[in-house]
Design goal:
Helix content of chain B: over 70%
Shape of chain B: globular
Largest sheet of chain A: none
Mean pLDDT of chain A: 89
Number of helices of chain A: 5
Radius of gyration of chain B: 20 Å
Helix content of chain A: over 70%
Largest interface: A-B, 75 and 93 residues
Distance between the termini of chain A: 35 Å
Largest sheet of chain B: none
Oligomer: heterodimer
Number of domains of chain A: 2
Strand content of chain B: under 5%
Order of helices and strands of chain B: HHHHHHHHHHHH
Number of strands of chain B: 0
Chain lengths: 111, 236
């Protein structure tokens, strides 16, 4: 990480202001006036539109292995997705994915 | 309303918020560990957690900062992760729009996935709740979660340095994100958005950090809405 302390605080400060502005936007400024339906529809896809694209390169080309695809990480990612999807619970996906990951790392170390 | 009902609304909210400690504690500890590992100071780590108070966006920002992305891209990508909260803000307005400004501001600061989802479920369930009680209920839920989020981040930041490299904590982050997003995939349209997001992000991986992701997210949102419209037309 090559930022100065000032730059890091700038990031934190602007993120805090921006996040608050997003959260305050409708509740604070317009009360209960309705939004354009198309915008509402698009916003509803925000989490599923951002997170998968952010994670995919981390799963396929992890920095920890020098960017080489790693079977243990790919399997652990699939386990996390599968369990979280099936149970609809974030916490079970995290536990299962972590368990699969460390089991895989342990096995690789033994073999 | 009376002081008595406000107090009971607050306590009910607090009780309903308690189960979330099982998600919040590991996630917050992890943020503390990841932030310190990435090279942030203790004060910067706590600054993120207290001022921004949005887990997924904090992780996204730290991830991009590890890549030394331009500050503008860090902000854009992290705030894009938080855009869903504009939806939450809009969805809360009919229930809390009548509350005093300071309460709406405080609700906004504390408006994250768990508080929003718990509160809206309650408001839908009990349409007769007064605006004041709704606000107290929201603050109750947040009181069970937010202080713990900060304390657990501090704990993670303090023990972080003691966690050995062999634990490969780098990969806990993708696992946490995938676990967060998978339950949100409820329809074919969500799935289409997620798949488009992955494909476009991988195709644009060589663009400056963060910018490929933003394009991918935009394409994914359009794909989600398009599939949703197609499905509605097929049903009609």
């Amino acid at each position: 990480m090559n930022y100065t302390a000032g730059q890091i605080w700038l990031i934190i400060g602007l993120m805090a202001i921006g996040t608050f502005a997003i959260r305050f936007s409708f509740l604070g400024l317009i009360g209960d006036k309705p939004m354009p339906p198309l915008i509402l529809r698009m916003l509803r896809y925000t989490p599923v539109a951002v997170l998968p694209g952010m994670v995919a390169p981390l799963v396929l080309w992890p920095a920890a292995t020098g960017g080489q695809p790693d079977l243990v990480r790919i399997i652990a990612a699939l386990v996390a997705v599968g369990v979280a999807y099936k149970t609809r619970k974030v916490v079970w996906g995290m536990f299962a994915g972590a368990a699969a990951f460390y089991a895989g790392l342990g096995l690789t170390a033994l073999l | 309303m009376t002081a008595a009902t406000a107090k009971s609304a607050y306590l009910t909210g607090f009780r309903d918020g308690l189960p979330f400690i099982f998600i919040v504690i590991p996630f917050a500890v992890l943020f503390g560990v990841v932030a310190i590992e990435a090279g942030l100071t203790l004060a910067q780590t706590m600054g993120f957690t207290v001022l921004v108070i949005a887990g997924a966006a904090q992780f996204a920002a730290v991830q991009l900062m590890l890549d030394n992305a331009a500050i503008g891209f860090v902000l854009l990508a992290a705030l894009a992760v938080n855009l869903r909260m504009a939806m939450y803000s809009a969805a809360l307005a009919p229930y809390l729009g009548g509350a005093p400004l300071w309460q709406r501001a405080l609700v906004s600061y504390l408006n994250f996935d768990q508080t929003y989802m718990t509160a809206v479920a309650k408001y839908e369930d009990q349409p007769d709740m007064s605006v004041a009680d709704r606000a107290q209920y929201f603050f109750g839920v947040a009181s069970a979660i937010a202080p713990l989020w900060c304390a657990a981040t501090l704990g993670g930041a303090l023990i972080g340095a003691a966690i050995p490299e062999a634990l490969a904590l780098d990969f806990i982050l993708p696992i946490a994100f995938l676990s967060m997003v998978a339950p949100m995939v409820r329809t074919l349209a969500h799935l289409a958005a997620a798949v488009v997001s992955v494909i476009v992000a991988l195709l644009l991986i060589n663009l400056p950090s963060g910018s490929g992701l933003l394009i991918a997210a935009l394409c994914a949102m359009v794909a989600g809405v398009a599939v949703e419209s197609l499905m509605e037309r097929a049903r009609a």
